[in-house]
Amino acid sequence: MAEVKPSHSLIGTTLAQDVYNEYGLLLLPAGAILHLSDIRLLEAHQVEAVHVTTDSEAPEMPFPLLHWSESEAAKAYMVAVQKTEYLFNQLANGGTPKLQQFSDAVHPMLDQVLHHMRFLRFIYLNEGTESYTYRHSLHVGIVAALIGKIIGLPQRDVHFLGLAGLLHDIGKMKIPDELLSKPERLTDEEYTIMKKHTVYGYELLRTMDDADNLLAQCALMHHERWDGSGYPLGQKKDGIPFECQIISVADTFDAICTDRVYRKGTSPFEAANVLWESACTGQLNPMIVSRFIHYIILLYVGSHALLNNGDHVEIIMIHTDEPMRPLVRRGNEFIDLRLQRSLRIQRMIS
């Protein structure tokens, strides 16, 4: 086993040990054969050295949950969505599942996601509006937990964010289906009804065994904004619990990336841009947004994307001054999106 600096000379070699980024998330597993996109990923995360095998060595085998094929990821993801749908439907029909049942639905997947950074890329390749409410709730739990890990919160708080994200929209089970699935813009009257999901969620969680007040507050206040423009209470900055502020960022990000009944989802780069604008205008906590954007953008180095002009490109390098407008490659041509302002990354492709 040799310790070497990532470079193009490593293309075709095999990793002997797992490689993690600064947040403790898995970049590449032991046994991976390095490709050019992997080298770019390692460079983007400023990994100074990796361990590769010599001809006579076999790679060290890490914990098996870290090695997901796309089919295994899809299966685990759909199981979590189905469990979430089942529990939410129980609520819609007047039942009251125990809080532990929701924990059991999200935490097994969460434990894997927090060690496997590529999983977040996987969920945003899925398209369609089927089971949107349940998928969105699960996604917000995943993203909120990742944000918690990125900013260095204790493991207990990270898991709490996963559960709070899963349950943030639980009040929508009390909203009429025709509003949740309406393909057109809501009327003012309908929007007033929709906004009540925050209060309904708070009230539902307060009736659950073992649900503490902070969990209920995350359902109540995830639409509050730093500048006081949110609802239902119009709270500002320190009046909004920090955990609720994290849920707000995760909720906004996923709502932009995921297909809705009234519009197509867009790319994480577009979502990151919206988050940054919201932070600059005082709606979202800028510390949370900036830390999350730095992570999420680096995640996509080496990925393939579709530009708004229909061109397929590979993301090559993230610029520190404008991370949402990276250097991309189209065939043999390199395009700096900082200079080509009319072009943007519309969505990610497999």
Question: At the fourth CATH level, what is the homologous superfamily of the largest domain?
Answer: Hypothetical protein af1432
CATH architecture of the largest domain: Orthogonal Bundle
Mean pLDDT: 86
CATH class of the largest domain: Mainly Alpha
Distance between the termini: 32 Å
Write a short abstract of this structure:
This is HD-GYP domain-containing protein. The chain has 3 domains: 63 residues, Alpha-Beta Complex (Molybdopterin biosynthesis moea protein, domain 2); 231 residues, Hypothetical protein af1432 (Orthogonal Bundle); 46 residues.
Structure overview:
It is a single chain. This protein has 350 residues and is of the alpha+beta class. Helix 5 runs antiparallel to helix 6. Strands 8-7-6-5-9 form a five-stranded antiparallel beta sheet. The chain starts with a strand and ends with a strand. It contains 13 helices and nine strands.
Set down the secondary structure blueprint.
Blueprint: E1 2-4, E2 19-20, E3 26-28, H1 36-44, E4 50-52, H2 70-92, H3 99-113, H4 118-123, H5 132-150, H6 155-167, H7 177-180, H8 188-194, H9 197-206, H10 213-221, H11 242-257, H12 268-280, H13 286-298, E5 304-307, E6 312-317, E7 327-330, E8 333-336, E9 345-349
Helix pairs in contact: 2-3, 2-5, 3-6, 5-6, 5-11, 6-10, 9-10, 10-11, 11-12, 12-13
InterPro entries: HD/PDEase_dom, HD_GYP_dom, HDIG_dom
Domain HD-GYP: 111-308
Protein name: HD-GYP domain-containing protein
